[in-house]
Amino acid sequence: MALFIGILSSLADRIGIWNLESAAVSYCCGIVVNSWLNRHLTFRGRSRKYLS
């Protein structure tokens, strides 16, 4: 969570991007990181049989 708040504040305050755009970029970064972590930490199994 702190990472995404850091991205948001860096884009908005330091770089000068509009707050809504900074929030959208931060949210998208959160989706990507959470999806990657979920895939690699939660679903560690090697089998690709998801529906069986």
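the 2nd protein, sequnce then structure:
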Amino acid sequence: MTATDPLPYPLPMSDLPQGAGRTLLLGGFSLGFALGGFFDGILLHQILQWHHLLSGLASPAFADIGVQILADGVFHALMYVIAAVGLWLLWRGRPGLGLIGGRRLMGWALLGFGVWHVLDGLMSHWLLGLHRIRMDVEDKLFWDLLWFFVFGVAVMLAGWLLTRADSGLPGGRSRVPVLLALAVGLAGAVATLPPPGATATLVLFRPGTAPAEALAALASVDGRTVWSDPTGQLWAIDMADGGSTLGLYRHLYRQGALLVSNGVVPAGCLDWFRPAPGLAAASRNAGSRPAAL
């Protein structure tokens, strides 16, 4: 650290006290998180008007523009609350600024900004389907991924690098392995995307799923059945009408899908942790009967 450094970086994280210093970092993160929400809402909802908060919901109840604007207003009100909490934490933790330094505080604010966009992409765009970045284009996934990596992953990485910018900190030399691991992870996620023009998708259901349940789930996402294995657990469907394979997780998770190909987010894999319906029912029945003597 030099005497002219406008953002001093005095103490490593392990030496920070539990009080004001950590409160200040949490305040910076909260304020950055709220600013990420404001950036999304003001730029995309109002200036560019690419989407509203609930633009992806097909229910007629959400078709009215007044309802959409109301939802945007509630969203911004929530961001105001989070920003107010962040400012309050910054005020409470102000005595710790000399301990953590402005550089680390700025880094945590950038981490909060990036985390907002990562959570928005994972939850609002792909798992819940509340909206997409651009609702007026065919290639919605491209814009989702662009926003996810530029304003989410890249900003989080910049914030993390800023918090580790002082080479004198313990562990400062560990940046290269972490960056390589992050690059491999991002490359692996991008590699799971289907090649241009590919429309076939494989869907693996859990054991015990009835064919009628599988067909109903596939029909709910407008998938055209191409092939099924004899067990009825593995299906190939065609999404030629421009449907998103990421939407399959939202619909099929409740139907018992274990894995959907051609998707960046393997959320369906979490279904491995749910007990099979027959086993759950058997367990409940066994628990309700007295033990045999």
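The chain is about 55% helix and 5% strand. Residues 74 and 190 are 34 Å apart (CA to CA).
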